[in-house]
Amino acid sequence: MLPDLTRPFALLRREGRDVVEVLAGTVVTVASLADIPDESLSLVPFRQVRERGFDCVDDGTPLSVLRIASRALHPLADVVACLSAVPVVLSGGAFDVSDDDYATIVAEVLRDEIGRGEGSNFVIHRVFEADVDGDPVAAALAVFRRLLERERGAYWTFVVHTGDRTLVGATPERHVSVEDGLVMMNPISGTFRHPGGVPDREAVLRFLTDRKEIDELSMVLDEELKMMATVATEGGQVVGPYLKEMAHLVHTEYLLAGRSALDVRDVLRETMFAPTVVGSPIENACRVVARHERRGRGYYGAVLALIGRDAAGRQTLDAPILIRTADISASGRLRVPVGATLVRHSTPAGEVAETHTKAAGVLAALGLGGPVEVSAPTLLAADPGVQAALVARNATLAPFWLQDHHTRALATPQLAGRRVLIVDAEDTFTGMLHHQLRVLGLDVTLRKHTDVSSVAGFDLVVLGPGPGDPRRIEEPKMAAMRAVAARLLADGTPTLAVCLGHQLLSGLLGLPLRRKANPYQGMQRDIVFFGRPAIVGFYSTFTATHPHDHFSSEYGDVELSRDPANGDVHALRGPTFAGVQFHPESVLSYDGIDLLRAMLTTLLPAAVS
């Protein structure tokens, strides 16, 4: 039943199945995702994110591909019976970064990155390391058995042996899958630790209403919607949230779904990697991670990728995230990487504790976690109170993303066919803007801020969001974006500016910019938008301010929507321009699509035939 353990193999149990897939074949190393063949299982390293042009510390970890020569399905109980129950013995176990040093890194990221507008959340990892006594493959199979017996709720439980390393784990999270053209992603965030068995109901309800946990999930939901808007023809629909219950952990999760005609390798490339293990916005998060971790990630935060064809010859992809995983070298060196999601609410002590929590599941399987509940307890997901708390999370989220919608289904005749250029400032929120503008009927082009040599031929330009301090106008990105904004103002080209674009537009109009004492990163707020109450989502550390609702500029009179308590400018509008500090495209902006339509119809009056 078990394959030849001296040659490459993989054992996989996928969620909801009472069988184990046994794969065997040969292992090759390839350079890029495009080189991955069909009928293969790939170990994709984090360094592969360079294919998207993103920063990383290149540690040389290979993109290893198991070319599947044989595959079989065996009943779960039969496989468990074949696996050894001998305890795994470790020596010299410790984290590679001490608790104190990790707490210092957390404090630096909160202060220097989130506090300076570089992003809304970042994941910083550390690694539990030890030496395995005895045969590494036998040890990994023993861990696999314990995970099969004791873990629950895992998306994949697996062991993969390439010949020179063995990975074993129980990952809770699908990153991306494709079946019959349907792309699915599965953002998970929020972690509640319990000792095993049935978690305390009241404690779970407190977890479900905890602001930090809600904000974490909302932020990764937005980030994965950005990816879905890029790979799915009609964007992604949000389903959920759900409660994911594991042996010692409870998480909250959403499901995203959308249809795509892309090759599955392109889907995989455009979604590298999950914000739950990197941060947001993803491009700058990669820079921040590299800057503070200062070492490679190996396979942590990347994916296993099972690529094949279904009975009808259509491509399939199933790619779980490589977390809750032990990586054991041929010499017996064991590594268990774990990370904590840092947001504006985070504390160094809390995030140190979270890394211990996340390591606990794998360490328990290694025999280091004490007694484990192995029965199948009643789950809480069906509890009416829990279901009500989950449903309540959607009450103020944007209906646009929660409902099934089709391209141009909301098309507005006044906007139909008008040409719009979106200028990308390194935040793929522009992908969601692109999708919403297309749904409203516009003809949309997206370009990076480095590629905008001319705006001729466009009816409107959208200055997009992005990370960074808008006051540092000497920085190349800020200088380039500011130059585009100045040209648009001078030419009178209709302009809509979002977040960073809004801040730069505000500066050109003469408004002072200040850093907020408490960043609005992933914050939903009730505002008054030019006399209209609205619920919107902010991702900002900086804001323009003004003491009045109107002022005169060299480009005409400007009207402001602002916070009367402190003068923070939420939105502005003038003769040929408008700007919003919030993100109308965000899932946090309940009224986002309506506000976007209103601004566009004002900026683009009906075309003269």
From TrEMBL:
Residues 99-358 form the Chorismate-utilising enzyme C-terminal domain. SUPFAM superfamilies: ADC synthase, Class I glutamine amidotransferase-like. Its EC number is 4.1.3.27. Keywords: Glutamine amidotransferase, Lyase. Pfam families: Chorismate_bind, GATase. CDD domains: GATase1_Anthranilate_Synthase. The keyword Lyase applies. The keyword Lyase applies. It is an enzyme of class 4 (lyase). It comes from the Bacteria. PROSITE patterns: GATASE_TYPE_1. Residues 421-598 form the Glutamine amidotransferase domain. It catalyses: chorismate + L-glutamine = anthranilate + pyruvate + L-glutamate + H(+). This is anthranilate synthase. It comes from Dactylosporangium cerinum.
